[in-house]
Structure formats: C-alpha cells, structure tokens
C-alpha cells in the first residue's frame, strides 16, 4: 500500500511501553466511545493487561513507534474472545492509533504485523467489536478480510447515551487435532 509510512517501526510491546500505552488508551477512555471503559487507568493498573500479551502465543501486543524513540503511534492486540475453554481458538482483536497519527496507515501496519505474528498459532477465528459510528475502523477490518456479522444495539452506555457495537469476524488458519 502506498499509504504505509516508512518512518514507523512495528514490534512487540514491552514493559517500557507501559506508560505511553496507558496514556494513549486513556485518551480514548476520556474522549471517545471507542472503548467502553469509563475511568482512566494508571500504568500500574494497566500492567496486568500488558503482561497478558507476551511475545509469543495467541495473545499479542504489537506497537508502532517512531524508530529510535519511545513515541507510540498506536498498538494492536489479540486477546481472549471469551473465558470458556471451547473459545480458545478464537481471539478478539483491536487497534488504537494515537490521535496525531491517524490517516497515516498505522492501523494497517499494526494489523499486518499482528496477523503475521498470529499465523503460526492454533487459531480459527478473529473477532472485532467496533463502536458505532466508526467508518475508518469498519474499512480497516474489511481490508483485512473481516466480514460484518451483526450489531449489538445500544449495548454500552457512556457520555449519557447508548452506543451500538458492530461485530466483525475473520477466518484464520485452523488445525483440528
């Protein structure tokens, strides 16, 4: 893609990223309905989240940075879809891009790296919930092969109103025992 920036490095997230990742996420908590968290986090409160995304396995954290800098431009994760054991081959994915870094292809770079990292894992489906309206996120997910499967109507309440969440799914490789 011609819109992919060349001045961006994508790598697994590490503990040194915790403060910047927390600040980025807190922007979306305070300013948007993209996340349904309603209270900001301290880095210490976000540490378990970061530690739940190791460098290997099905639950990953990919971070986009300016090379030779700690500046975080965005991140993408794969996380457990649901807690019950039969859901183990499904993940929920998400992307957050720093407000100043939008429309530069950062989300595309992050998802590309995330799905490459997940390609060797025993995963069957990826799911993404997109709070509505969010056309940019819908387009990103569709570019990566996600297909719209339905909308939960007025499923979250934030900023004094109810929000819909559109759900998307993407087939991944599958290995049956």
Task: Tell me what you see in this structure.
It is a single chain. The protein is globular. Helix 1 (18-31) crosses helix 2 (43-51). It contains 4 helices and 7 strands, in the order E-H-H-E-E-E-H-E-H-E-E. Helix 3 (106-118) links the parallel strand 4 (90-97) and strand 5. The longest helix is centred in the N-terminal third of the chain and has 14 residues, at 18-31. The protein has a 7-stranded mixed β-sheet with strand order 1-2-3-4-5-7-6, with helices on both faces. Helix content is 25%, strand content 32%. Residues 1-5 have low confidence and may be disordered. The protein has helices at residues 18-31, 43-51, 106-118, 135-143, and strands at residues 9-12, 61-65, 72-80, 90-97, 125-131, 147-158, 161-171. With 177 residues, the protein is of the alpha+beta class. The N and C termini lie far apart (37 Å).
Key features of this structure:
177 residues; alpha+beta; seven-stranded mixed β-sheet; 4 helices; 25% helix; disordered N terminus
End-to-end span in angstroms?
37 Å
Average pLDDT figure: 93
SSE run: EHHEEEHEHEE
| Strand composition percent | 25-35%
Net shape: globular
The major β-sheet equals: 7 strands, mixed
Number of helices: 4
Number of strands: 7
Q: What is the helical fraction, as a range of percent?
A: 25-40%
Strands ordered across the widest β-sheet: 1-2-3-4-5-7-6
The radius of gyration over CA amounts to: 16 Å
Decide which structural class fits the backbone.
alpha+beta
Q: Give the low-confidence spans.
A: 1-5
Multimerization status: single chain
């Amino acid at each position: 893609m011609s819109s992919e920036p060349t001045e961006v490095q994508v790598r697994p997230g590490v503990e040194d990223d915790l403060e910047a990742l927390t600040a980025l996420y807190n922007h979306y908590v305070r300013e948007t309905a993209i996340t349904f968290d309603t209270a900001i986090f301290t880095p210490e409160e976000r540490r378990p989240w970061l530690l739940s995304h190791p460098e290997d396995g099905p639950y990953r954290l990919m971070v986009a940075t300016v090379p030779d800098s700690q500046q975080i431009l965005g991140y993408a994760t794969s996380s457990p879809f649901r807690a019950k054991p039969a859901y183990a081959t499904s993940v929920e994915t998400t992307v957050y891009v720093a407000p100043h870094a939008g429309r530069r292809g950062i989300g595309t770079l992050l998802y590309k790296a995330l799905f490459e990292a997940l390609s060797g894992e025993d995963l069957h489906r990826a799911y993404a919930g997109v709070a509505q309206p969010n056309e940019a996120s819908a387009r990103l997910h569709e570019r990566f092969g996600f297909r719209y499967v339905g909308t939960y109507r007025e499923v979250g309440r934030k900023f004094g109103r109810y929000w819909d969440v559109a759900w998307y799914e993407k087939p991944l490789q599958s290995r049956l025992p």
